[in-house]
Amino acid sequence: MKTIILATKNAGKVREFRDLTGGFCEVLTMAEAGIHLDIEETGTTFAENASIKARAVWEARAAAGFYDTVISDDSGIEIDFLDKKPGIYSSRWLGEDTPYTEKNQIVLNLLAPAPEDKRTARYVCAMSAILPDGSEISVLETTEGCIAYEAKGENGFGYDPIFLIPETGLTFAEMSAEAKHAISHRGKALRLLQQHLHTAGIV
After folding, report:
1. What gap in Å lies between CA 170 and CA 61, rounded to an integer?
2. What is the chain's mean pLDDT, rounded?
3. Which end of the chain is more exposed for a tag (fewer CB within 10 A), N or C?
4. Gap between the Cα atoms of 197 and 50, Å rounded
5. From CA 1, how far away is CA 127, in angstroms rounded?
């Protein structure tokens, strides 16, 4: 089985990524691969930040004599009523240590005056894979939805309790993992990336 290192310290992303791979590869976290870096996300887009993180981890492994495939996911939520904020700053918005229960309530408060047709939002996911030879594959996917009127659900993480899929009437946090992965930005991005990795002979 091929080994892929996931360039993130986000436990929720690690859990989802392992669920999504469905056993097509062994997934190691940065810590499990012996990489302890604080990577500064200096990009201005999701794609740039995904590339920065993946490249930093790949170079650290290469310096130790290991040439692995490294994948990074940079994702977040764009809320149209807030001029697409928080966007690439989704995890850092209002402070990295601020609980998402508070962040989600602040979003709900900010959108209180927004009519239903102005509550549109989307989750965005950019994935970058640095292959053993140092070449890079990048993909980007989105999932359209809207901001709910109240937080609902106990599953998922981040802004999932307030991100509503109108066709289902459910927030991401109310969905089963399987249902969410079938339509989520991260699920779509990984499936597309997997196709590219298969073509490249990586998985």
Report:
1. 41
2. 93
3. N
4. 16
5. 21
